[in-house]
Amino acid sequence: MKPASKPKAPAPLTLKWSGCSDLGKVRRNNEDAFLGLRFDARDVHRLGKFGAASTAKHGFAFAVCDGMGGAKAGEYASSIAVDKITTLLPRAFQHSATGLDLGVGDVLAELYEQIHRALAYLGSCYDECHGMQTTMSLCWFTPGWMYFGHIGDSRIYHLRAGKSAILQLTEDDTHVGWLYRNGQINEREARNHPRRNVLQKALGGGNQFVDPQVGAVACERGDFFLLCSDGLTEGLYDHYLVDILRASAKDENINPAQLLVSESVKNDGRDNTTALVVQVV
Protein backbone atom coordinates (compact mmCIF):
# COMPACT_ATOMS: atom_id res chain seq x y z
CA MET A 1 0.00 0.00 0.00
CA LYS A 2 1.31 3.42 -0.94
CA PRO A 3 1.70 5.89 1.93
CA ALA A 4 -0.96 8.57 2.04
CA SER A 5 0.17 11.72 0.30
CA LYS A 6 0.17 15.02 2.16
CA PRO A 7 -2.64 17.44 1.34
CA LYS A 8 -1.60 19.89 -1.31
CA ALA A 9 -0.81 23.30 0.16
CA PRO A 10 -2.88 26.21 -1.17
CA ALA A 11 -1.18 28.10 -3.97
CA PRO A 12 0.23 31.51 -2.99
CA LEU A 13 -1.79 34.48 -4.12
CA THR A 14 -0.88 38.06 -4.92
CA LEU A 15 -2.57 40.80 -2.93
CA LYS A 16 -3.07 44.32 -4.21
CA TRP A 17 -4.09 46.89 -1.62
CA SER A 18 -4.95 50.56 -1.20
CA GLY A 19 -5.90 52.56 1.89
CA CYS A 20 -7.26 56.06 2.49
CA SER A 21 -8.59 58.03 5.47
CA ASP A 22 -10.27 61.45 5.53
CA LEU A 23 -11.15 63.81 8.37
CA GLY A 24 -14.59 64.51 6.88
CA LYS A 25 -16.44 67.81 6.87
CA VAL A 26 -17.24 68.15 10.59
CA ARG A 27 -14.64 66.51 12.87
CA ARG A 28 -11.56 68.39 14.08
CA ASN A 29 -9.35 65.33 14.46
CA ASN A 30 -9.23 61.92 12.81
CA GLU A 31 -10.04 59.11 15.25
CA ASP A 32 -9.78 56.45 12.52
CA ALA A 33 -6.59 54.48 11.91
CA PHE A 34 -5.71 51.82 9.38
CA LEU A 35 -2.81 49.40 9.05
CA GLY A 36 -1.17 47.18 6.45
CA LEU A 37 1.42 44.69 7.69
CA ARG A 38 3.73 42.08 6.14
CA PHE A 39 5.30 39.67 8.59
CA ASP A 40 6.75 36.26 9.38
CA ALA A 41 8.05 34.67 12.60
CA ARG A 42 11.15 36.88 12.62
CA ASP A 43 10.38 40.15 10.88
CA VAL A 44 7.58 42.70 10.52
CA HIS A 45 7.18 45.50 7.99
CA ARG A 46 4.52 48.20 7.82
CA LEU A 47 3.07 48.59 4.35
CA GLY A 48 2.46 51.80 2.44
CA LYS A 49 -0.95 53.13 1.50
CA PHE A 50 -0.93 51.09 -1.71
CA GLY A 51 1.08 48.24 -3.18
CA ALA A 52 1.12 44.57 -4.21
CA ALA A 53 2.89 41.45 -2.92
CA SER A 54 2.70 37.63 -2.84
CA THR A 55 1.59 35.53 0.14
CA ALA A 56 4.22 32.89 -0.73
CA LYS A 57 6.64 33.67 2.12
CA HIS A 58 4.85 36.13 4.38
CA GLY A 59 1.60 36.68 6.20
CA PHE A 60 -0.32 39.90 5.63
CA ALA A 61 -2.63 41.72 7.99
CA PHE A 62 -4.89 44.70 7.32
CA ALA A 63 -6.96 46.49 9.95
CA VAL A 64 -9.28 49.46 10.42
CA CYS A 65 -9.98 50.98 13.85
CA ASP A 66 -12.40 53.75 14.80
CA GLY A 67 -11.60 55.32 18.16
CA MET A 68 -13.97 57.02 20.60
CA GLY A 69 -13.46 59.18 23.67
CA GLY A 70 -13.16 62.75 24.86
CA ALA A 71 -10.53 65.20 23.54
CA LYS A 72 -8.01 63.07 21.63
CA ALA A 73 -8.67 59.83 23.55
CA GLY A 74 -10.36 58.19 20.55
CA GLU A 75 -7.39 59.05 18.35
CA TYR A 76 -5.04 57.51 20.93
CA ALA A 77 -7.19 54.38 21.23
CA SER A 78 -7.18 53.58 17.51
CA SER A 79 -3.45 54.28 17.15
CA ILE A 80 -2.61 52.11 20.17
CA ALA A 81 -4.67 49.28 18.69
CA VAL A 82 -2.79 49.26 15.36
CA ASP A 83 0.55 49.50 17.17
CA LYS A 84 -0.38 46.45 19.27
CA ILE A 85 -1.24 44.49 16.12
CA THR A 86 2.24 45.27 14.80
CA THR A 87 3.81 43.89 17.98
CA LEU A 88 1.60 40.91 18.79
CA LEU A 89 0.54 39.33 15.51
CA PRO A 90 4.02 38.44 14.15
CA ARG A 91 4.72 36.49 17.35
CA ALA A 92 1.84 34.21 16.47
CA PHE A 93 2.82 33.67 12.83
CA GLN A 94 4.45 30.31 13.50
CA HIS A 95 1.15 29.00 14.87
CA SER A 96 -0.82 29.95 11.76
CA ALA A 97 -0.73 28.24 8.37
CA THR A 98 -3.88 26.48 7.29
CA GLY A 99 -6.90 26.74 9.54
CA LEU A 100 -8.82 27.87 12.57
CA ASP A 101 -8.54 24.36 14.03
CA LEU A 102 -4.78 24.91 14.29
CA GLY A 103 -5.18 27.92 16.53
CA VAL A 104 -5.77 30.97 14.33
CA GLY A 105 -9.09 31.66 16.06
CA ASP A 106 -7.43 31.47 19.47
CA VAL A 107 -4.60 33.75 18.28
CA LEU A 108 -7.06 36.41 17.12
CA ALA A 109 -9.14 36.16 20.29
CA GLU A 110 -5.99 36.62 22.40
CA LEU A 111 -4.92 39.58 20.25
CA TYR A 112 -8.22 41.33 20.90
CA GLU A 113 -8.04 40.53 24.61
CA GLN A 114 -4.55 41.99 24.97
CA ILE A 115 -5.47 45.19 23.12
CA HIS A 116 -8.58 45.53 25.27
CA ARG A 117 -6.56 45.14 28.48
CA ALA A 118 -3.98 47.71 27.32
CA LEU A 119 -6.65 50.31 26.53
CA ALA A 120 -8.57 49.65 29.76
CA TYR A 121 -5.35 50.00 31.78
CA LEU A 122 -4.39 53.30 30.17
CA GLY A 123 -7.92 54.57 30.59
CA SER A 124 -7.77 53.84 34.31
CA CYS A 125 -4.35 55.50 34.77
CA TYR A 126 -4.70 58.78 32.88
CA ASP A 127 -7.58 61.24 33.06
CA GLU A 128 -7.13 62.24 29.41
CA CYS A 129 -7.56 58.59 28.38
CA HIS A 130 -10.55 57.83 30.60
CA GLY A 131 -13.27 55.95 28.71
CA MET A 132 -11.31 55.66 25.47
CA GLN A 133 -12.27 52.75 23.28
CA THR A 134 -12.06 51.60 19.69
CA THR A 135 -13.60 49.30 17.13
CA MET A 136 -11.27 46.92 15.30
CA SER A 137 -11.80 44.94 12.10
CA LEU A 138 -8.82 42.86 10.99
CA CYS A 139 -8.04 40.57 8.04
CA TRP A 140 -5.13 38.09 8.17
CA PHE A 141 -4.13 36.64 4.79
CA THR A 142 -2.28 33.34 4.34
CA PRO A 143 -2.01 31.26 1.12
CA GLY A 144 -5.59 30.46 0.12
CA TRP A 145 -7.32 31.89 3.19
CA MET A 146 -8.37 35.11 4.88
CA TYR A 147 -9.01 34.95 8.62
CA PHE A 148 -10.80 37.83 10.27
CA GLY A 149 -11.56 39.26 13.69
CA HIS A 150 -14.02 42.00 14.49
CA ILE A 151 -15.57 44.06 17.26
CA GLY A 152 -17.62 47.25 16.98
CA ASP A 153 -19.29 48.80 13.93
CA SER A 154 -16.43 49.09 11.49
CA ARG A 155 -16.97 46.51 8.76
CA ILE A 156 -15.36 43.88 6.54
CA TYR A 157 -17.02 43.24 3.18
CA HIS A 158 -16.31 40.47 0.66
CA LEU A 159 -17.05 40.78 -3.04
CA ARG A 160 -16.55 37.36 -4.62
CA ALA A 161 -15.13 37.13 -8.13
CA GLY A 162 -17.98 36.99 -10.64
CA LYS A 163 -20.70 37.93 -8.11
CA SER A 164 -22.84 41.06 -8.27
CA ALA A 165 -23.73 41.32 -4.56
CA ILE A 166 -21.32 42.29 -1.80
CA LEU A 167 -21.39 40.34 1.48
CA GLN A 168 -20.85 41.96 4.87
CA LEU A 169 -18.75 39.39 6.75
CA THR A 170 -18.89 41.19 10.08
CA GLU A 171 -21.87 41.93 12.29
CA ASP A 172 -22.31 45.46 13.62
CA ASP A 173 -22.18 45.36 17.43
CA THR A 174 -25.19 47.65 17.75
CA HIS A 175 -28.90 47.12 18.41
CA VAL A 176 -29.65 48.70 15.05
CA GLY A 177 -27.32 46.14 13.42
CA TRP A 178 -29.26 43.37 15.12
CA LEU A 179 -32.56 44.80 13.83
CA TYR A 180 -31.16 44.93 10.28
CA ARG A 181 -29.72 41.39 10.39
CA ASN A 182 -33.06 40.05 11.54
CA GLY A 183 -35.01 41.78 8.79
CA GLN A 184 -36.87 44.19 11.07
CA ILE A 185 -35.52 47.27 9.26
CA ASN A 186 -34.06 47.80 5.80
CA GLU A 187 -30.71 49.33 4.78
CA ARG A 188 -32.16 52.84 4.45
CA GLU A 189 -33.86 52.65 7.86
CA ALA A 190 -30.69 51.34 9.49
CA ARG A 191 -28.66 54.16 7.93
CA ASN A 192 -31.03 56.82 9.32
CA HIS A 193 -31.81 55.28 12.71
CA PRO A 194 -31.04 57.74 15.57
CA ARG A 195 -29.21 55.04 17.58
CA ARG A 196 -27.20 53.57 14.72
CA ASN A 197 -23.86 54.59 16.28
CA VAL A 198 -24.53 53.35 19.84
CA LEU A 199 -22.10 50.47 20.36
CA GLN A 200 -22.76 47.37 22.45
CA LYS A 201 -19.16 46.12 22.14
CA ALA A 202 -15.76 47.78 21.72
CA LEU A 203 -12.17 47.45 22.93
CA GLY A 204 -11.35 49.43 26.06
CA GLY A 205 -13.77 51.80 27.78
CA GLY A 206 -15.97 50.27 30.45
CA ASN A 207 -16.40 46.98 28.62
CA GLN A 208 -15.64 44.15 31.02
CA PHE A 209 -15.49 41.27 28.54
CA VAL A 210 -14.19 40.93 24.98
CA ASP A 211 -15.91 38.50 22.63
CA PRO A 212 -14.77 39.27 19.06
CA GLN A 213 -16.36 37.74 16.00
CA VAL A 214 -13.84 35.41 14.33
CA GLY A 215 -14.15 33.67 10.97
CA ALA A 216 -12.44 32.53 7.79
CA VAL A 217 -13.02 32.83 4.03
CA ALA A 218 -11.31 30.96 1.21
CA CYS A 219 -9.67 33.39 -1.22
CA GLU A 220 -9.97 33.26 -5.00
CA ARG A 221 -8.40 35.39 -7.70
CA GLY A 222 -10.65 38.33 -8.44
CA ASP A 223 -11.94 38.63 -4.87
CA PHE A 224 -12.18 42.00 -3.14
CA PHE A 225 -12.10 42.57 0.60
CA LEU A 226 -13.10 45.99 1.94
CA LEU A 227 -12.39 47.10 5.50
CA CYS A 228 -13.98 50.41 6.47
CA SER A 229 -15.09 52.63 9.32
CA ASP A 230 -18.76 53.46 9.72
CA GLY A 231 -18.10 56.89 8.22
CA LEU A 232 -17.71 55.27 4.79
CA THR A 233 -21.04 53.46 4.83
CA GLU A 234 -22.81 56.59 6.12
CA GLY A 235 -22.18 58.06 2.68
CA LEU A 236 -22.40 55.04 0.35
CA TYR A 237 -25.00 52.31 -0.08
CA ASP A 238 -23.79 48.77 -0.71
CA HIS A 239 -24.43 48.83 -4.47
CA TYR A 240 -22.11 51.84 -4.82
CA LEU A 241 -19.37 49.86 -3.09
CA VAL A 242 -19.74 47.17 -5.76
CA ASP A 243 -19.72 49.69 -8.61
CA ILE A 244 -16.48 51.31 -7.44
CA LEU A 245 -14.67 48.05 -6.72
CA ARG A 246 -15.67 46.61 -10.11
CA ALA A 247 -14.59 49.81 -11.86
CA SER A 248 -11.14 49.59 -10.23
CA ALA A 249 -10.76 46.01 -11.48
CA LYS A 250 -11.26 47.25 -15.05
CA ASP A 251 -9.10 50.38 -14.75
CA GLU A 252 -5.77 50.07 -12.96
CA ASN A 253 -5.52 53.87 -12.74
CA ILE A 254 -8.39 53.93 -10.22
CA ASN A 255 -7.34 53.88 -6.57
CA PRO A 256 -10.42 52.14 -5.08
CA ALA A 257 -9.89 53.21 -1.45
CA GLN A 258 -9.36 56.83 -2.41
CA LEU A 259 -12.40 56.86 -4.69
CA LEU A 260 -14.62 55.20 -2.06
CA VAL A 261 -13.60 57.73 0.58
CA SER A 262 -13.93 60.79 -1.66
CA GLU A 263 -17.40 59.74 -2.86
CA SER A 264 -18.57 59.00 0.69
CA VAL A 265 -17.31 62.32 2.06
CA LYS A 266 -18.94 64.15 -0.85
CA ASN A 267 -22.29 62.48 -0.07
CA ASP A 268 -22.11 62.76 3.73
CA GLY A 269 -18.84 63.62 5.51
CA ARG A 270 -20.21 63.94 9.06
CA ASP A 271 -17.67 61.43 10.40
CA ASN A 272 -14.07 60.41 9.80
CA THR A 273 -14.06 58.13 6.77
CA THR A 274 -11.64 55.26 6.11
CA ALA A 275 -11.42 52.51 3.49
CA LEU A 276 -8.85 49.76 3.04
CA VAL A 277 -9.27 47.62 -0.09
CA VAL A 278 -7.49 44.31 -0.68
CA GLN A 279 -7.84 42.62 -4.08
CA VAL A 280 -6.70 39.07 -4.79
CA VAL A 281 -5.06 39.08 -8.23
Q: In short, what is this structure?
A:
With 281 residues, the protein is an alpha+beta fold. Helices cover 29% and strands 28% of the residues. The chain has one domain: PPM-type phosphatase domain (Phosphatase 2c, domain 1), CATH 3.60.40.
Q: How would you explain this protein's 3D organization?
A:
The chain is of the alpha+beta class. Helices cover 29% and strands 28% of the residues. It has one domain (28-38, 58-280): PPM-type phosphatase domain (Phosphatase 2c, domain 1). The protein contains seven helices and 14 strands. The protein is globular.
Please describe the structure with a list of short key phrases separated by commas or semicolons.
8-stranded antiparallel sheet; 7 helices; 6-stranded antiparallel sheet; 14 strands; Phosphatase 2c, domain 1
Strand-helix topology:
Layout: E1 14-22, E2 32-39, E3 44-46, E4 50-54, E5 59-68, H1 73-88, H2 104-125, E6 133-134, E7 136-142, E8 145-151, E9 155-159, E10 167-168, H3 175-181, H4 187-192, E11 203-204, E12 213-218, E13 224-228, H5 230-235, H6 238-250, H7 256-267, E14 273-280
Antiparallel strand pairs: 1-4, 1-14, 2-3, 2-5, 5-6, 5-7, 6-11, 7-8, 8-12, 9-10, 9-13, 13-14
Helix pairs in contact: 1-2
